[in-house]
Amino acid sequence: MNRSIISGEDGARLLDEDQVEDPLFVQAIARALHVLSVFHKAEQPLSLTEIAEASGTGRSAAQRVVHTLRALGYIERDETGRGFLPGIRVLDHTVDYLRLNKLIERATPVLLDLRKNARERIDLSLFDDLRVVYAARMQSKRETFFATLVGHSVPTFCTSGGRAIMAHLTDAQVDDIIARSDRRPFTDKTITAPDEVRAMVREARQNGYALTVEEVLVGEVALGVAVLGQGGRPLGAIHVAGSLSEWTPDAFRARFAPLAVEAANAINRLR
Amino acid sequence: MNRSIISGEDGARLLDEDQVEDPLFVQAIARALHVLSVFHKAEQPLSLTEIAEASGTGRSAAQRVVHTLRALGYIERDETGRGFLPGIRVLDHTVDYLRLNKLIERATPVLLDLRKNARERIDLSLFDDLRVVYAARMQSKRETFFATLVGHSVPTFCTSGGRAIMAHLTDAQVDDIIARSDRRPFTDKTITAPDEVRAMVREARQNGYALTVEEVLVGEVALGVAVLGQGGRPLGAIHVAGSLSEWTPDAFRARFAPLAVEAANAINRLR
DNA sequence: AAGTCTGTATCGACTAGCGATACAGATATA
DNA sequence: TATATCTGTATCGCTAGTCGATACAGACTT
Questions:
Q1: What are A11-23's pLDDT values in tens digits?
Q2: Distance CA A131, CA A134 (A)
Q3: Closest residue in B to A228 (Cα–Cα)
Q4: Interface contact B100, partner A, CB < 8 A
Q5: Hey, which CATH number is domain A17-89, 3.40.50.880, 3.30.420.40, 3.30.110.70, 1.10.10.10?
Q6: Collapsing DSSP states into helix, strand and coil, what is residue B121?
Q7: From the centroid of its chain, how far is CA B247?
Q8: A59-71 and A48-55 are packed helices; what angle lies between their axes, rounded to 10 degrees?
């Protein structure tokens, strides 16, 4: 039972039962953002009742939240047909996040340089527990794919960047991530067995990078190198991605591993 | 007194006094999102007290909101140094917005095609009252600029896309937008005088597109064509942007106006 | 015309959030 | 070394604000 990369069925941190006990935890906020998060699983505009059901709130509360969110621009009505959609206002926060993120800031010039030399697609992803979130993509020359992957996330356990990141964690942390991950495969090449994943992580530890072949996308080979912050903690990863129609995995590795590792080092050196 | 395109000092819809009277308006949500919006004017991590001051809330309330937002991943601590930053969770909503937006969906293939023919930078922007928000960018062959402009916004009154959009509004609406806009210039070529802007809009009405020369960025010539929805209402615009080092404005217009207009028509025809 | 969806609105009961106040750790003044 | 002022965190009682029930109008089905 493979799954798609398109839909957002990943680690959407929803409200935790414990948090209801926390006196510092403002419930209304959680409810509101929970309502907004409902769209993560949606494929089309949602009606008020659908929102209410999906968010677990009653119709009344859902309507009042939607009303407010709409007034603030975080939710819009669908023009054609009925229902609601996320509003354009969310993009303001996107740009704030990207702009203020120090890792992105210091990685950008290095990535531009890497892309020039590599002439393949370069991505920057950010580590977020069970997943790795794309923050920037520099498309390759020939590739006409949509530049806007910002915000897309893929599981840590089965991506080149994720594995490179795990290589900088303790075994216990790696095991924890593997155990908690939804390990449904994307392709029939996706490695999901905990032992095999652990082996890949050990390999990445020795190499200083991770290579994945068709684990997320058929025909794609990807090489990931972790980017580190404070005291060696992995914050994200650089990805170089190419097509198997042009490269064998080994040729890809030989060509791009040095470049990518050097780029990551350059970023790490900046602090 | 020119201004920068980088910082987010645009139409951030904050809470309106009237809304306090609205019984359906959930204040806690507005407060929370207002706190998140505080980062729109920030250039660096914000301390709790800075957040409190900027959002108008007391320290206590601000702390409690930040606490919750942090638990949910919408706010993070800055690793190095102190203070808070927007959290990675906001990118989830970004991808939801982009994914569910019908205009982006139907425009994408056409834009890819346009980029192939034009070989210049192609943008898709969405109309949001006083501003126009970039939703997608397909970079040109040679351009190494960062692909991640998603969420950036520029004023409607002085951009090619914005003017093309205004060409599809009534005169009263255009006047309203001009009047309410913060018309500080970006460059010394920025046209800010209401009458001149109106003239440009009239011109755009006749041509079916708008051309701007260095009004936002020095050295840039841009051509915008509106994209329409339900009953001719403008939803956004296609932009083609080039460099004055390669094109005279007239040559640019002659070369790309037909292509861009045709692309916009293609998108409009899809519904 | 009866039925079932939309989205919207009102109001009282009670809970959940605000503000005041306090504390601990880090960095900066004297 | 001491005093001051930041940082972020935590507690608790009063009351303002939210939830849920209930109701209504318009748009599609049947």
A1: 445 556 566 567 7
A2: 10
A3: B79
A4: yes
A5: 1.10.10.10
A6: strand
A7: 25
A8: 110
The percent helix, strand, coil of chain B (3-state, each to 5) is 45, 20, 35
**A101-269 under CATH 3.30.450.40, yes or no:** yes
Considering only CB atoms, which chain B residues are within 8 Å of A6? Answer: 99
Amino acid at B198: R
* Sign of the CA dihedral running A245, A250, A254, A258: positive
CATH number of B17-87: 1.10.10.10
Q: Domain-by-domain residue ranges, chain A? A: 17-89, 101-269
Q: Is the pLDDT of residue B147 over 80?
A: no
Search chain B and give the residue with CA nearest A113: B144
Contact by Cβ (8 Å): B167, B210: yes
Look at residue B205 and give its three-state secondary structure: helix
Burial (CB < 10 A; 0-12, 13-18, 19+), residue B219, is exposed
Structure tokens at B112: 């890819």
pLDDT in tens, A197-228: 999 999 999 999 999 999 999 999 999 999 99
Task: Name beta bridge partners: A210.
Answer: A224
The pair of three-digit structure tokens given for residue A92, joined into one six-digit string:
């303001």
- Considering only CA atoms, which of A91, A190, A196 is closest in space to residue B151? A91
DSSP for residue A232: G
Query: Whats the size of chain B, residue-wise?
Result: 271
